[in-house]
Design goal:
CATH architecture of the largest domain: 3-Layer(aba) Sandwich
Shape: globular
CATH class of the largest domain: Alpha Beta
Strand content: 15-25%
C-alpha cells in the first residue's frame, strides 16, 4: 500500500512512518518547505528508514500545489497529522492556527475528492475539541458536546465537523481520531511533560546547572499514552473497513495528575535536590481540569491496547533529550 503522511516532520509522523515501513508499505511524506527540514526526523526513523521515504513538497494551504501532488501521485490512504497543535500558540496567533488547520484540512479533503475518491483519509482531530467536558470525571464519549477551551481546539472542531459532513454525504472515505494526551521521543519541549524532561536532561548533561525545575499546573488530570501506541491505533483503523465514516477516541486507561509525570521523570533521572517552581508562563489562560476518554469502539474494531508502560515512555523521552543535548 502507498500512504501519504502530512506532518511527517512533526511529533507523531516519524513514528508512524517507522510502523508503516516495518509492515512493508510505501511511505510518502509531505514537507512544507524544501530547505532540508526533513532531515530532522533522522533522530527517530534512522538512516535505513529515512532513505525509503518519498518526500513531497507543498503547503496544505496552497491548493494549486496540493492539486499537483494528487494529480502526479496515487495513494491508498492519507494520514493527516499536520497542524498547528500547540494550544498556547493558538491564543497568540488564532488566525494563523485557523489558516493552517481549517483551510489546510479543507484543501486536502477537496483534492482527495477531486482526484482520488477511493483514497482513505484519516483526520487527526484531538481531545481538545471536548474542552472541559470531562471535568466531572466521566469517560468522554465521541458523542459528547464539543466545547473547545482554546483556539486550537476550535480549529479542530471546525475541521472535524466538516469531514463528518463530507463522510455522511458520501464525498469522501475517511475516519476521525481524537487522540488524548500522548508523549514520547521527539515530543516538542514546548509541551508540558517533554518540557520537564528537557529541563531534567539539561541538568543531567551539565551537573553544574541549577536544579530548579519550572513547571505549570501539576494538579490537572490527564490520561497519557505513548506516541508509538497512538500511531498504532491510527494504522490499525486505516486497515479496517469498519472504521470508515466513524469517529474514535484514542485514549489510555489510567488518569493521573500532571505532577505524577514530573515526579516520575525526576525519579528516573536519579538526580538529587531537584526543586519545582511554578512558572506563570506555563499556565494556559483557560485550562482543562480533568480528561479521560472512552476508546472502547477503537478496541472493539481493531483489538488495540496500549503496549508501552508509562515508565518506559518517560524513560525513552528522557533518554531522547539526553541524546539530543549531548
Amino acid at each position: 500500500m502507498k500512504y501519504l503522511i502530512t506532518g511527517i516532520t512533526g511529533f507523531a509522523g516519524p513514528h508512524l512512518a517507522n510502523l508503516l515501513l516495518k509492515d512493508g508499505h510505501e511511505v510518502f511524506g509531505l514537507v512544507r518547505g524544501s530547505n532540508g527540514m526533513e532531515t530532522d526526523i533522522l533522530d527517530v526513523v534512522g538512516e535505513p528508514n529515512y532513505s525509503k521515504i518519498n518526500f513531497l513538497y507543498g503547503d496544505l494551504t496552497n491548493l494549486r500545489l496540493l492539486s499537483n501532488i494528487f494529480k502526479d501521485n496515487e495513494f491508498d490512504g492519507v494520514f493527516h497529522l499536520a497542524a498547528q497543535s500547540h494550544p498556547p500558540t493558538s491564543f497568540i496567533d488564532p488566525i494563523g492556527t485557523f489558516e493552517a488547520n481549517i483551510m489546510g484540512t479543507a484543501n486536502l479533503i477537496q483534492v482527495i475528492q477531486d482526484y482520488q475518491p477511493e483514497c482513505k483519509l484519516m483526520f487527526c482531530s484531538t481531545s481538545e475539541v471536548y474542552g472541559n467536558e470531562g471535568k466531572d470525571g466521566h469517560l468522554i464519549k465521541t458523542t459528547d458536546t464539543l466545547l473547545p477551551a482554546n483556539p486550537y481546539g476550535a480549529s479542530k472542531v471546525a475541521s472535524d465537523l466538516y469531514l463528518q459532513e463530507r463522510m455522511i454525504n458520501g464525498g469522501i472515505k475517511g475516519f476521525i481520531t481524537r487522540a488524548f494526551s500522548h508523549t514520547g521521543p521527539r515530543r516538542g519541549k514546548n509541551f508540558s511533560i517533554s518540557c520537564d524532561a528537557h529541563q531534567i536532561a539539561k541538568m543531567m548533561v551539565d551537573p553544574s546547572m541549577d536544579r530548579t525545575l519550572s513547571v505549570g499546573n501539576l494538579d490537572t488530570i490527564r490520561v497519557v499514552i505513548d506516541v508509538r501506541d497512538c500511531v498504532k491505533a491510527y494504522y490499525l483503523l486505516m486497515q479496517s473497513e469498519d472504521a470508515l465514516g466513524k469517529v474514535f477516541n484514542v485514549c489510555g486507561d489510567v488518569p493521573r495528575k500532571m505532577g505524577f509525570f514530573t515526579d516520575e521523570l525526576i525519579k528516573i533521572s536519579k538526580l538529587e535536590g531537584v526543586t519545582k517552581w511554578v512558572n506563570p508562563k506555563y499556565y494556559r489562560p483557560i485550562d482543562i481540569d480533568y480528561q479521560h476518554g472512552d476508546s472502547s469502539e477503537l478496541k472493539e474494531i481493531t483489538g488495540w491496547e496500549p503496549e508501552y508502560t508509562i515508565e518506559q515512555t518517560l524513560t525513552d523521552l528522557l533518554n531522547y533529550w539526553i541524546y539530543k543535548l549531548s
